[in-house]
């Protein structure tokens, strides 16, 4: 499905911020960086139908399908110390997951650290980047969100890994975007004010907790995911009882087919 967005209506709702809607960019990260330096306000959004060089986690590419998904960067200019900027990523995960549930996609969960899944497959990827000012403070951060809404053909090897919102709910990109942006506004503010409340919501939505996991591609460990730490680390207890606090890793969950 190729569903247009009503740019004017969205811009009207995004009061005192900039909303940029582009048919094609290299990556919304690049466009947002330019806007952030030009003085765009907290909460501004750059959304593109197509990215020719979309970036994913761990240096991977991110593929976009015009009219089908929502690919955007959200600008965060908040009084947050640079060493607390990593808190924005779990806040974004809670925001997107909650917005999907607001839209009745009740099976939406967070797969640690920041994938949103449904039916065991990935619906949405989130990647945050930040820039420091001359004194080492946070100049700004931006959250890049890639959300699969309407189904489009994916390569055979990805079929079991990718999910689309319209497999679960009847929803327009327009309404979903409005719901997601509203939750992001709320959760980014909460991340600054009271991160423990973000974490409480994160734990409640986290699919990984309580599962047998295998972590690699950053830190590695194998065992049960027993908790989420105070800075959103995944706490894994291995067979010998040793606890591992993972900050960056790719986590596979053990299912009937082994680790996936
Ligand atoms: C992931 O690998 O899970 C994160 C994917 C993030 C993709 C989004 S799409 C909009 C923004 N611009 C990019 O180049 N990447 C992010």
Describe what this molecule looks like in 3D:
With 260 residues, the protein is of the alpha+beta class. 25% of the residues lie in helices and 31% in strands. The protein is built from 5 helices and 13 strands. A 7-stranded mixed sheet has the order 1-2-3-7-6-5-4, with helices on both faces. A 6-stranded antiparallel sheet has the order 11-10-9-8-12-13. Strand 5 and strand 6 form a beta hairpin. The protein is globular. The mean pLDDT is 94. Biotin (BTN) binds at residues 27-29, 51, 54-57, 60, 62, 71-73, 115, 125-127, 144-146.
The order of strands across the largest sheet is 1-2-3-7-6-5-4
Specify the biggest β-sheet: 7 strands, mixed
Roughly what percent helix?
10-25%
Q: What number is the mean pLDDT? A: 94
Counted by DSSP, the helix tally is: 5
In angstroms, what is the radius of gyration?
18 Å
Structural class: alpha+beta
The arrangement of helices and strands along the chain is HEHEEHEEEEHHEEEEEE
Low-confidence stretches: none
Q: Number of DSSP strands? A: 13
Q: Please report which band the strand proportion falls in: under 5%, 5-15%, 15-25%, 25-35%, 35-45% or over 45%.
A: 25-35%
The outline comes out as globular
Small molecules in complex: biotin
End-to-end Cα distance: 29 Å
How would you classify the quaternary structure? single chain
């Amino acid at each position: 499905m190729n569903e247009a967005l009503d740019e004017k209506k969205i811009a009207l709702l995004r009061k005192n911020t900039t909303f940029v809607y582009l048919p094609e960019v290299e990556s919304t990260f690049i466009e947002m960086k330019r806007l952030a330096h030009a003085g765009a306000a907290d909460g501004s959004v750059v959304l593109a139908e197509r990215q020719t060089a979309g970036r994913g986690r761990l240096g991977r590419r991110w593929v976009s399908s015009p009219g089908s998904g929502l690919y955007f960067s959200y600008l965060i200019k908040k009084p947050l110390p640079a060493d607390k900027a990593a808190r924005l990523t779990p806040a974004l995960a809670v925001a997107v997951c909650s917005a999907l549930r607001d839209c009745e996609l009740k099976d939406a969960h967070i797969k640690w650290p920041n994938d949103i899944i449904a039916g065991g497959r990935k619906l949405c990827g989130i990647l945050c980047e930040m820039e420091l000012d001359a004194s080492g403070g946070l100049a700004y951060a931006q959250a890049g969100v890639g959300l699969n809404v309407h189904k489009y053909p994916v390569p055979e090897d990805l079929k079991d890994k990718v999910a689309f919102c319209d497999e679960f709910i009847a929803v327009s990109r327009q309404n979903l975007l409005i719901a997601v942006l509203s939750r992001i506004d709320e959760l980014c503010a909460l991340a600054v004010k009271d991160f423990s409340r973000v974490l409480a919501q994160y734990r409640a939505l986290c699919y990984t907790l309580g599962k047998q996991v295998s972590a690699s591609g950053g830190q590695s460990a194998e065992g049960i995911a027993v908790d989420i730490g105070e800075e959103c680390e995944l706490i894994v207890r291995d067979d010998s009882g040793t606890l591992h606090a993972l900050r960056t890793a790719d986590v596979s969950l053990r299912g009937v087919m082994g680790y996936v």
